[in-house]
Amino acid sequence: MDELVVLFGGFSVADMYPSVKLLQVMSGMRRKLEKLHKRVDQILENIVNEHREKKAKRESGRGEAEDLVDVLLRVQKDGELEFPLTNNNIKVVILDIFSAGSETSSGVIEWAMSEMLKNPEMMKMAQVEVRHVFDRKRNVDETCLHELKYLNSIIKETLRLHPIVPLLLPRESNEQCTINGYEIPVKTKVIVNAWAIGRDPKHWNEAEKFDPERFLNSAIDFKGACFEYIPFGAGRRICPGIAFAIPNIELPLAQLLYRFDWKLLGGMKQEELDMTETFGLTARRKNDLQVIPIPYHPPHVKE
Ligand code: HEM
Q: Name one GO molecular function term (predicted).
């Protein structure tokens, strides 16, 4: 995944001059991509084969419950769809879950934790909320996530300052148009800088400040209707995984905040925490976040 993200998002001089075919050979990009494609394909092939073998065992009476790949294999075999589900279709769904689904959500969790460690009073407020909601159950599950209004605004503010796919996905214009006086010819590769839009002082007060409260009682949402805030993109090709992504961030974050108090390593001060980003398809932390968890023991609350 690390290599894939760098190569997919990395700068290649050959992209700037697509008609100079020699540059594509000289940059070595194509060769690197083909090599990586082979390795990724082999990993995905192995996952599918392992599931086929497990399925054979399960049919003879042993084995565990079905997972996503099992379901896709079953649908493929039963021919329930109007169109055939090929092995490549199944492999690409697995790749989507790893690349579009996990890399993004885990990156946002890491940024949200980093911002809260930099702003301990905000972490405290988020913990008070999570513990207030879940102490009666002594466990965090999905049922009450909608009650975590402050945590939700922390996630929104994290996505504003750290849109994990900062340049969205490259698009190609299918007709000629003019934007802000610039003529965009047909078939131009268009890149939208969601990172810069989220920090634009024309649209955001104190744009560089991490301030989750700006989203409390605000109608601004990431569903593609507010163009000053597009961490999931907008339009027809907006991220189709939003409904899965948000609980996938909320639930682990709520669990981390509920179960532990958190300290930076080696007595590091909050202002010393490095917030440098990587350059690639996704903008993750350059250096892993290292923290010390201190277990929290929920009180016994009468039902
Ligand atoms: C915090 C989590 C996530 C963020 C910030 C995010 C962001 C994005 C962005 C910015 C795009 C490009 C949209 C555009 O160019 O207009 C995108 C596309 C996509 N995302 Fe997500 N995503 C997240 C989670 C997920 C999840 C959980 C899945 C699926 C399990 C997913 C699947 C996809 C797919 C398949 C596309 C390509 C859609 C297309 O080109 O038509 N994403 N995502």
A: iron ion binding
* Residue 200 phi, psi dihedral angles, 5° rounding: -75, 115
- The 10 Å Cβ neighbour count of residue 23 is 16
> Would the CA dihedral through 199, 204, 205, 211 be positive or negative?
negative
Query: Atom 40 of ligand 1 has which residue's CA nearest to it?
Result: 237
How far is the C-alpha of 244 from the C-alpha of 295, rounded, in Å?
28
Contact predicate 265/291, CB 8 Å: yes
State the complex-level ipTM.
Answer: 0.98
Mutate which of 239, 253, 282, 284 for ligand 1 pocket (most atoms within 8 A of beta carbon): 239
Q: Which amino acid makes up residue 229?
A: Y
pLDDT in tens, 14-63: 877 878 888 878 888 888 889 999 999 999 999 999 999 988 877 665 55
Taking the model in full, what pTM does it have? 0.90
pLDDT tens for 96-140 read 998 888 889 999 999 999 999 999 999 999 999 999 999 988 889
The CATH number of 120-302 is: 1.10.630.10
Identify any residues that bridge with 285 across adjacent strands, giving them in sequence order. 277
CA of 68 relative to ligand 1 center, distance in Å: 19
Nearest one of 201, 178, 205, 175 to 188, comparing CA atoms: 175
pLDDT tens digits for range 164-204: 999 999 899 999 999 999 999 999 988 999 999 999 999 99
Q: Which residues line ligand 1 (CB under 6 A)?
A: 96-97, 100-101, 104-105, 108, 164-165, 168-169, 231-234, 237-241, 244-245, 248-249
The set of residues, in sequence order, having a beta carbon less than 8 Å from that of 16 and lying 6+ positions away, is none
Q: How far is the CA of 174 from the centre of ligand 1 (A)?
A: 21
